[in-house]
Amino acid sequence: MTDDETTIRYVIGSLGTSHWEKLHETARLRIENRLIKSIKEGRYNSKQARTLDDALGTWAINIFSKMILKREAILAIYGNLNSKNIERENYIFKFISTSLTKLSELTPFGFDELFTRKIKEGDERFYDSILIGDFWDIQSKDLEDAINLFVPALPTYDPFDDDIPF
Questions:
Q1: Which helix (DSSP H) or strand (DSSP E) does residue 50 occupy?
Q2: pLDDT digit string (tens) for 87-96?
Q3: In Å, how far are 29, 57, 160 from 35, measured between CA atoms?
């Protein structure tokens, strides 16, 4: 029954972090797997200000610090941020990025390089998430340089933009 989204939301909302570890390990693993699957599939349209797929994954931040499957959650988050799919990246920035340090005390492999590359490309979302969000304290010299020399990229034309001024 742990696959039912309403039940999962109720369990996480009721128990929170403090009692998460008291659940039977099998139940925790089922719920955590479902949350991670939802994170992988999550998409957020910033123009419409709405989640397009799998809002359930947003509940994962409530238990990040006590998760058994932290590594898998980190891989799902990294996968979205490195997907080149703006809606998947936006999902992480909107709902998950402020809680990344609850999954790992140190910067997970690949995150430093990914953020360095994206910031050098002028992606304000990656830049802002480091300045505003909860990012790891230890950063490479390359990332520090990218932050200090940041220049936002020029906006690109979006053929699907609804706000046509005529």
A1: strand 50-53
A2: 999 999 999 9
A3: 10, 5, 30
